[in-house]
Amino acid sequence: LKHDSLEEKPLFYDRPVKESLTTLFDLLTEKRYAEVRKALEDKGMRSGFTCLFYGSPGTGKTESVYQLARKTGRDINMADVAKLKSMWVGESEKNLKRLFASYKKLVQNSSITPILLFNEADAIFGIRKSGAEGAVDKMENSLQNIILQEMEDLKGILIATTNLTENLDKAFERRFLYKVKFNNPSVEIKCQIWNAMMPELSEADAHYLAEKFDFSGGQIENVVRKKTIQNIL
């Protein structure tokens, strides 16, 4: 995904998420990112930048990555987990190695480091199975070992999103430099989302909807889309 093809979209966060993302936006501007990477390399530390966005569905994890990329001028290399996995023995591992090799070349040939995005990462970053004997379990463990090693050797930016943190292997959690938890929005933030998506709502109606329904931002958007379609019909 080219950064200049991503549309600007207003996002609304409660304070903890807003503060975390503001820090990330600042760190990933090209000037600051170059400073951080050099400082880490000068101290003999890993310079790879790894982030985990986790929390409930529809809370803006993926869209936050898009806006981060757009604002910092970074293209996104999307890892398609479904395409990585193959029914053929050994092919999934080759696909994964090709993905990271391709990303390394992209980093080397890009003036601005792109982002490698694993969306819904629990499908491939899951808990490793001890004493795996079945072919599928062995393949899953093999894939996870490759990713763990690649995260150690990373010279770029990897961001993973997941809804199910309890399914994430502890070895992966330790390798994420930044972890941002996306909760369902507070009543105040839901009011802002309702008002932004349905400007015709009165403040009282927006507050009523925000208090009555424990919706995520994605769910509110779906409600507004359905209403728009119904109006046309």
Architecture overview:
- By secondary structure, the chain is an alpha/beta fold.
- Helices cover 53% and strands 11% of the residues.
- It is built from ten helices and five strands; from the N terminus they run ααβαβααβαβαβααα.
- The chain has a five-stranded parallel sheet.
- α6 links the parallel β3 and β4 (157-162).
- The model has no long low-confidence stretch (mean pLDDT 87).
Order of helices and strands: HHEHEHHEHEHEHHH
- From the spread of the alpha carbons, the general shape counts as globular
- Total beta strand runs: 5
Physical arrangement of strands within the biggest beta sheet: 2-3-4-1-5
Put simply, the count of helices is 10
Radius of gyration: 20 Å
Strand content: 5-15%
Oligomer class:
single chain
Distance between the termini: 34 Å
Main sheet attributes: strand count, strand direction, barrel closure: 5 strands, parallel
Please give the share of residues in helix.
40-55%
Structural class: alpha/beta
Identify low-pLDDT runs.
none
Mean pLDDT across all residues, rounded? 87
